[in-house]
Write a structure and sequence with these properties.
The protein is an alpha/beta fold. The chain has helices spanning 27-36, 55-68, 82-90, 92-99, and strands at residues 2-7, 38-40, 73-79, 102-108. The protein has a four-stranded parallel β-sheet with strand order 2-1-3-4, with helices on one face. The two termini are 24 Å apart. The model is unreliable at 15-23 (pLDDT under 50).
């Protein structure tokens, strides 16, 4: 089993599907998680959902976790939208820090 984290664009349309698997409201992301047998990691016990919608929140939770111990994850699963690309262009140092915590980054459109 792999360990991973999901990052969704907060402006992404959320599709509500009956009997949906608990991890993610986007079918394409959820299908990938099931196909690869990814267990979703929770970095922040106060997190309301099992996925992130803000790259900064992911960055700070990863940074806090790394302070306590050296942790890497297998997958970062991202649904790619324009807003996320703006983050990587505007804050490349934060993006590099996020990338260093994962073995694989999978982008889903």
């Amino acid at each position: 089993m792999y360990r991973g984290i999901i990052l969704l664009d907060e402006k992404c349309p959320i599709i509500q599907v009956p009997n949906f698997v608990k991890h993610c409201p986007l079918k394409s992301v959820n299908d990938f998680i099931c196909q690869k047998n990814i267990e979703i990691a929770t970095l922040n016990p106060h997190q309301l959902t099992s996925y992130y919608t803000r790259p900064f929140a992911l960055y700070f939770d990863l940074k806090k976790t790394k302070k306590d111990r050296k942790v890497t994850y297998d997958y970062l699963v991202i649904n790619l939208h324009e807003a996320f690309q703006k983050f990587t262009d505007t804050y490349p140092e934060y993006w590099n820090e996020i990338q260093s915590s994962f073995h694989h980054i999978h982008l889903i459109k």
